[in-house]
Amino acid sequence: MMDTSKRLLALDIFRGVTIAGMIMVNNPGNWSTTYAPLLHAEWHGCTPTDWIFPFFLFIVGVAIPLALGRRKAEGADQKALMMKILRRTLAIFGIGLFLHLIPDFDFAGLRIPGVLQRIALVYGACSIIFLKTDWKGQLWLGGGLLLLYWILMTWVPVPGGYAPNLDPETNLGAWLDRTVFTSAHLWDQAKTWDPEGLLSTLPSIVTGIIGMLTGLWIKSPRNDYEKLTGIFAVGTILVAAGLTWDLSFPINKKIWTSSYVLYVGGVALLFLGVVYWLVDVLQYKKWIKPFVVYGTNALVAYVLSVLVAKLMFGVSWAGADGAPVTLKDALYGSLYESWLSPYNASLAWALTNVLICLGLVWILYSRKIFVRV
Length: 373
Prior knowledge:
mainly alpha
């Protein structure tokens, strides 16, 4: 039977693989020459890149019973726990806003939604749900939120005279984001909608709930093979359910459709099951160190990846023709484009970013520095 330390090791590996994947897909050398699996789906549909963000939310959910389960069972002071949850939620949300602000600190054009902001909201909501409900309540609430979101997106007319639809600019979620945030505070690449918008936070919470239920299953007094059987069985069922619902409510990461939640939740379960089987059952651990390093300081790794990218684009000078040349342009052109094919050069740059950030967090790991928010 897997003890707590092993369980956390498997989770750190999964988290580390996920953060490495996120850094890789966020930092290609050239977006126009990036291999298709390393790009998000244009709209409906799903690529491996579309797995990465929900994997984080799933992992957040898995970690909640491991972190709060004992204190809940012992009847710890709920008010104190709620304050701790609130502080952590606000801290992660604030870091997300800070990353959007640097280097210009343009508050008038600050994007309010974002990746860390959604992680914060899902963490906060799921932690409170965990404290206030049992697994049955979580299961019913998750199913209810998916059905509610489906009804809102496909049955409710959109103010402004639009019938219910799933188009980028005219769906109900896009209207709500423009109404609440105004276009000035939405995703720069659209300004009329946001992939981490308000309404789609509802189904993203269910991604966290799937993780919480998984964490409770892993904590249960079953043997490894019983746990693995359950993980693989439910993962397969969720993938099938998501693909079936896709026929009427398309899988779509950008609006986080209910079918997407089921499908990617299933993929996350299967992925975690493979890690659990390799590491905790077969004890095959020769490959895990880089991912443990990443996984034990995942937030720091993400922040560093953003800062490194901003530095690469922020440092610039006038080229021979007078046009500005960024540090990224100079390094990419001389070290990669000069001898690799366009697609391989783009991939090599992305992998270099992964290695740079790994080196930075490895320094922390070697000194046993683990940053917790």
